[in-house]
Amino acid sequence: MNPIIKIFKTPELLAEAFADFIADDINLKDKYYISLSGGSTPKIVFKVLAERYSEKVDWSKVHFFWGDERCVPPDSDESNYKMTKDFLLDKINIPPENIHRIRGEDEPNEEAKRYSDEILKTVPFRSNLPCFDFVMLGLGEDGHTASIFPGRLDLFESDNICEAVKQPVTNQNRITITGRIINNSQQGAFLVTGKNKANIAAKILHDGVQSNNYPASYVKLNTGILYWFMDVDSSSLISL
Ligand code: 6PG
Question: How far from the centroid of its chain's Cα atoms is residue 87's Cα?
Answer without folding.
Answer: 16
